[in-house]
Amino acid sequence: MRYRTLLPATAIAFCFAVGLTGCDKGKDKPADAKADAKADAKADAKEDSKKEDSKKAEPEPALADAKHFDISHDKSGALARNAALLQTTDATSGDVALREHLGELSHHAEKVSGDATLCKHTIQLRLAADQPEGDLDSCITHFRHEVIILGPELFAEMAQCVLAAQTVAELDICEAAEKEAEEALHEQERGDNLSVETCEALFTQFKTLAAADAGDDAELIESILDDAKPDLMTACADYGTTAETDCALAAKTMDDLSACQSVM
What we know:
74% of the residues lie in helices and 0% in strands. By secondary structure, the chain is mainly α. The chain has two domains: 2-57, no CATH class; 71-263, no CATH class. 30% of the residues are buried.
């Protein structure tokens, strides 16, 4: 028993002999370990931050393949754009005679999928991705705007892009390409700088002849054209020519108007 009581005293004496620092090291170890762990955690966090920044810098795989529409494909003037608006409207699909005339003026835009068809596909993809955006009517209005601004040739390319899309990211690629093309078309000078009065006369003439050709769908045709009039007037100023206007104003029927494609 006495031996055991002397042992701690001996240990204490040894500590004084070698210095207090050596004996205190054992007490500091927990604090040192905590500091090391904290430093390691900080370093790991910094490394994770770098990795996250690196990921953000990289483009999404779907967006890496940017799409571009060649604006040189646009060959349409004001008349073709007016016709393409009605031709790509699914609501007019039942009027065979009218659509035949419209097809001649719009460079056979009847081959392009209609606005409602494009919208249903777009809405379906966005709903599947839990990204609902607008309703069918607003979507149709959007595509009617696009066919006028882009013209039937480029609109056909955009429609193909949209229908081929299987994800929202791919839809975004089509949308980016459309915006790029729209800006490029706006910057280029084409057409004869027709006056507002001339474009108003062309719009009225086209609406009158198209409504007469539509029969029972006359009110529908007039409504579609009236809603899109601001875009059609802009397209007339940007792309309309004196030759097609003179031909259109001289026309008495849609048959006569269809013949104006020869001067377009």
